Amino acid sequence: MIDNLKKILNEDQDPKAIEKISAKLENILMANEAVGYIAVQKKPAVTIFPDSIVVTNKRIILCKPKNLGLSMEFIDYDWTDLAGTFVKEGILGSDFTFTTLSDITQTVDYLPKNQARKLYTYAKEQLDKLKNPVIIPVVEPIDIQKPESHQEVFVEEVKPEEITHFAEIMPSNTDIIKDTEVEAPIVEEKGIAHLSQDELFAKLQNYKKLLDNGLILQGEYDKLKAEILRYL
């Protein structure tokens, strides 16, 4: 683990203290947890067992030696529990302080200034990530399916019958009188009484055809019909 920390450590840290802390950290680090920086306390007097602070991508850990260095006390706080971090620089070193959302304050004093600044920078970056998370859009895979086969429906086009002569659909007045045997009602009044019942009924049907074809008006048909019904 020491080899992995060489990139983030500097010459101000006590190598023996880093070695002891690293050995202890191997047993408490969680999955996908990476150490970002370790700061070691450096008091003016000779300190055999200094305190230290470890920051990872998941939490901040206070490391305090106990029992003449035979054991180590770890106090950790998740970044989500922190309210803020502070650095106060003095003549003999810097104090690194952080507060939690539950109003707990922790301070480690006599830290070298450059170590305290790196702690502060790393802590700010982690807190900023929590406040402004990077949202990675989820792109759903496009399901490309073959278009469903549709049964084609063929509609037979019926062509209208070709009309070569307009007279085929519009007979002349002469044809109308000839086919339907419709003569002027006033003239027929003399001869209609001599027609049989079947002939009268046939005339009535012819008048109806003329009305349906639009060749006579409703009033004319009613008049002709009335004349026929007089003899039926």
Structure commentary:
- With 232 residues, the protein is α+β, with helices and mostly antiparallel strands.
- It has 2 domains: 2-131, Pleckstrin-homology domain (PH domain)/Phosphotyrosine-binding domain (PTB) (PH-domain like); 166-229, no CATH class.
- It has helices at residues 2-5, 15-25, 113-131, 173-180, 185-188, 197-212, 218-229, and strands spanning 35-40, 52-56, 59-66, 71-78, 82-89, 94-100, 105-111.
- The strands form 2 sheets. The chain has a 4-stranded antiparallel β-sheet with strand order 1-2-3-4, with helices on both faces. A 3-stranded antiparallel β-sheet has the order 5-6-7, covered by helices on one side.
- Strand 2 and strand 3 (59-66) form a beta hairpin.
- Helix 6 runs antiparallel to helix 7 (218-229).
- The longest helix has 19 residues, at 113-131.
- The chain is rod-shaped and about 150 Å long.
- Residues 163-189 have low confidence and may be disordered.
